[in-house]
Amino acid sequence: MILMQDIYKTYKNGVTALNGININIDQGEFVYIVGPSGAGKSTFIKLMYREEKPSKGKIIIGEKDLSDLKEKHVPFLRRDIGVIFQDFKLLPKLTAYENVAFALEVIEESPKVIRKQVMEVLEMVGLKNKARMIPTELSGGEQQRVSIARAIVNKPRIVIADEPTGNLDPETSWEIMELFEEINARGTTIIMATHSKEIVDRKKKRVIAFEDGVIARDEQRGEYGYEV
Question: Which residues belong to any copy of the ABC transporter domain (predicted)?
Answer without folding.
Answer: 2-228
